[in-house]
Structure prediction request, 596 residues.
Amino acid sequence: MASQEYSPVAAAVGMDENFLSLDDILMSQEKLTSRVETVFPRLGFLEKSSDETDIAVGTKLEMPLWLVKGLHDGKRRIVSVELPKIYREGWRTVFSADPNVVDLQKLGPYYYSLGLQMLHFDSPENLEIAQTLVQTYVGRFRRIMDSSQNAYNEDVSALVEKLDVLERSLFGAGQAGLNGFQCWEKGHASRITASSLVKNYRKRKFADLEV
Amino acid sequence: MFCEKAIELIRELKRAADGQLPAFNEDGIRQVFEEMKALYEQNQMDVNVAKSDGRSDLIPTIKFRHCCLLRNQRCIAAYLCVFYDRLLRIRALRWEYGSVLPTAIRFHMCAEELEWFNQYKKSLATYMRSLGGGGGLDITQDMKPPKSLYIEVRCLKDYGEFEIDDGTTILLKKNSQHFLPRWKCEQLIRQGVLEHVMS
Amino acid sequence: MDPSEVEFLAEKEMVTIIPNFSLDKVYLIGGELGPFNPGLPVDVPLWLAINLKQRQKCRIVPPEWMDVEKLEVIREQERKEDTFTPIPSPYYMELTKLLLNHASDNIPKADEIRTLVKDTWDTRIAKLRLSADSFVSQQEVHAKLDNLTLMEINTIGTFFTDSLNNLFKIRANLQPRGESTMSQEY
Prediction:
C-alpha cells in the first residue's frame, strides 16, 4: 500500500529548501525583523504607518524569510536581519542547561529548519547556532522516543504540545510503528478497513457520499 | 505585503491534512496571477527607466519585486503543481475508492484534474489487464495479505442489490451480515459501505 | 512495512503437523507438500498448518523452542546480557501469536509461553531503545545490531531512520559551507 498512499513532499531541513514542500514554503513564511540598508524607491506603501513613496534607510520591517533570503547579497548590504531571540545567546544558554523544558511549539514552531536557514546570513555566531541545534535535537531525542513508543491509545496532544514541527513528525513516525505493532498483536492487522479519506470526509459531514 | 494570497493557498492545502482534497481554488490562483502580472509590469517599467535614465537606485526595488514574483511562482507551482501535490492525492483516491469517485469528491476537482484521473485510471487498467500472461490482475485488491477467500462483513448503510460471483444477487441492507468473497467486497469496505467483521 | 506483511512472511516457516487424513504429494509453485498419512508427522508451511488445523484435519507439533523451560532460559539470558541474544526463530513473535491463537490446545502451558515470549520481547525492545538513545546522544556513525528480528526492526525502524536522517541534516551544517552556495541566481 505504502507506495500508492498519498505522501507529501518532505521538508528539506537544512540550508537548502525543498522547492515543492508545503512545510518548507510555510517555514520560509516566518517573519524576521530586518533593517533596510538602502532606499527602496516606490515601495513605501508596504509600510502601513507611512505615507512616503520610498522605504527609507534604517526602516525596520517584518519580512518573511524568503524575501530576506532573496534580497540578501554577500557583496552589497540591502537588508540586514536580526537573529530571532530563540537563536541568540540568552536562549542558547537555556538550551544547553536543559533542552527538554523549552516549548518549541510556542517559540518555533520551525525551530530546527528556521535555525538552519539563519545560517545563510553570515552571522559571527553561526557556529554556536549550529552547535546548539545539534545539542538540542540530541538532548530532546530520548523523551520524544519514549513518549512516542509508550503512548498507546491515548490522547497525545499533551505529549506533542511542546514539540517543533520536525519533532512532531518524528513523534508521528514512532506512533505509527507502535500502533502498527499493537494492532497486529491484537489480531486486527489483517482486517480491511475503510479508507482514511472516507473517514475524514465523513467527519466533515459530507452528507452525500453516494456515487 | 505581497504574496499573501499565495501563502493562503498553501495553508489551505496544508489544513486539509491526511491527503484530503480541498476544493480547487481557481479564484485564489487568478488573484495570484493578477498580482504577478502587476509586479511584472511595474518591474518592466522600472527596468526601462533604470536603463535609460541610469537610475541604479531602482535596483533594490526591482530585486524586491522579483523576489515576490519568484515566491508567487513557487507557491503556485506547489499548489497548482496540480500536477504534483494534488495529483498525488488524486492518485491515492483511485487506490482507496476504486475507479468511480463519489460526487462530493469529484466536485472538488477541476476539469483538468478529472481528465488526469481518467487517464490515470485508464493506464492503470491497461497495465492490470496485461498482467498474469494476459489474464489480467487487479493489483488494487488484497492490499494486505489475505487470510481467506471469504470474509464476514456487516452492512453500514443501505446499499441495494449486489451481484456476487455465481450470478446471484443479494440485498445489502443496513446492519445485515454476509459471508462474501473477499475480492468482491474489499472496495466496498474501503468506501465505508461494509465493515469487515473479525471473529 | 505493515506488520501483517511481516506475518505473511512468517507464514512460510515450516512447522510439523500430524495429519488425520491421507493425501498424495501436492505440487505447488512454492514447493512440494506431503505426502500426508494419518498419524505420520510431516513438515508444512505455517499457513497450511493453520488452515488444516482450523478444519480439524491435523494436530500441530509445537516447535522445539516453544517450551516453558527453554523460554525461561532465553528470557533470563536476554535480561542478563547487554546485547541481543540469538533467538531460536527469526519469527518467534509471529509463530507464538499464530500458534497460540489457532492451536493452543496442542501446546502445553500456552499461557505461560505467551507471557515468557512477551517478556523477552519487552526486554529486547527496551534494549533497542536504550541503544538507539546512546547512538544518537553520542552521535555515533555506525553500530552493529546482531540477532534482531524483522518484527523488531519493523516496529522502530521508520522512527529510528527518520531521527538519524534529521540528525544528519542538522549536523551537516556544523562546518561552514563554501561561498558558491550563498549566491542566488536570478
Q: What stands out?
A: Confidence is low (pLDDT under 50) at residues 205-211 of chain A. The beta strands of chain A are 31-36, 60-64, 79-81.
